[in-house]
Amino acid sequence: MMTTDTKKSKTLLEVKDLCKHYPIRKGLFSRISGYVYAVDGISFTINEGETLGLVGESGCGKSTVGRTILKLIEPSRGEIIWRGERIDGLSRSQMRPYRQQIQAVFQDPYSSLNPRMRSADIVSEPLRNFESLSKAQGRERVSALFERVGLRPDQMLRFPHEFSGGQRQRLGIARALSVKPKLIMLDEPVSALDVSVQAQVINLLEDLQREFQVSYLFVAHDLAVVKHISHRVAVMYLGRIVELAPTKELFSRPSHPYTEALLSAVPVPDPKYQRKQIVLGGDVPSPINRPNGCHFHTRCPYAQERCKVEEPVLEEITPGHSVACHFKLNK
């Protein structure tokens, strides 16, 4: 488990009240009849050299958060502040200098790579976009990146289909690192890989973070992986952050019922240890017609009348540990 002194670190990225609402259009004139509330008012920071894990069930808005920060999709509302400067309202051309500093590694390593390009060209393409290098200089940089991520220089002429899944993900990491970014959004980077390969890629990411002082936004649903790599963890439910805390504190003392249920489902590698698993009732509500009050109250084992009518606010209960719940656990 990783630790860092976030108080001494400088804030790299700050997100304030970020929203992404997709309009639902119906009828002959395509009038808006409602919205899909994919992301609905989340706020957090990422410091230099830090990994923030973003976890939750499928469909809770994790990937949308990452893509909105990258401005692959435009936010509906909110502020995205990069090193003290707002970038959420910038045009495509104005965003170009920031593209070099914020990169991404996606979930499916094969679909995120151009199948018609050789691996050397895939890694060197960002270099050609942002730097003026000769062919010899570019080849030298790409060769060094290949070796650094665990690939052989003689694989530079191969196409993506000639690599294994783990090698393709290493290729994606090399591409992201080629322009020396300060933040990499990792969208489920190991979920499509075998367990043994997952460990290799996670160890590689940790080594690269120490070497290049790069920060990560680590989007995942595998809590065991998140626990290993993250300094802090934000738990999302139905488009909102319900708990945000340092990794060690979140896993040892969860304060939101949803976090407690998620942690109870994590497998423990000890057949003698019996953990009480919390099974949540019902289905995840629709992001179109969300429940009033606390969105989690329809599945919460501790819900009371107040939860049905009053929406909880994400508030700090201990330094660095914030929870959105009226009846916080382990107070």
Structural key phrases:
331 residues, Rossmann fold, 10 helices, single chain, alpha/beta, eight-stranded mixed β-sheet
Explain what this protein looks like in three dimensions.
With 331 residues, the protein is α/β, with parallel strands linked by helices. The protein folds into 2 domains: 11-101 and 181-323, Rossmann fold (3-Layer(aba) Sandwich); 115-180, no CATH class. The chain is built from 10 helices and 12 strands. The chain has helices spanning 62-69, 92-99, 119-130, 135-148, 165-177, 195-212, 223-229, 247-252, 257-264, 305-309; strands spanning 11-26, 31-47, 51-55, 77-82, 85-86, 102-105, 183-187, 215-219, 232-237, 240-246, 315-318, 321-323. The strands form 2 sheets. The chain has an 8-stranded mixed β-sheet, with helices on both faces. Strands 2-1-4-5 form a 4-stranded antiparallel β-sheet. β9 and β10 (240-246) form a beta hairpin. α3 packs across α4, α4 (135-148) crosses α5 (165-177) and α5 runs parallel beside α6. The mean pLDDT is 90.
